Amino acid sequence: MDSISIIGMISIITAGITIAVGSIAPALGEGRALSKALTAIAQQPDETPSITRTLFVGLAMIESTAIYCFVVALILIFANPFWDYVIGGG
Description:
Helix content: over 70%
Distance between the termini: 18 Å
Number of helices: 3
Largest sheet: none
């Protein structure tokens, strides 16, 4: 197995692990945030607009973590700098 194949294999495996962790953790966080927000709305219905606004901001921040992991995975697959190094003869 040559160097390019090993780098490609490691890049794909790392991208898969990145996507797996980067999608599971934010999903758990979003579920927990939504659960807590619904509990708070049920206990204090008058504060629904404030709780909803805060929930949406929090969900956007949590979701950005998943998007960052997705971007890192895409970089590992399509723009890996190690491939250029090996192909160029390093």
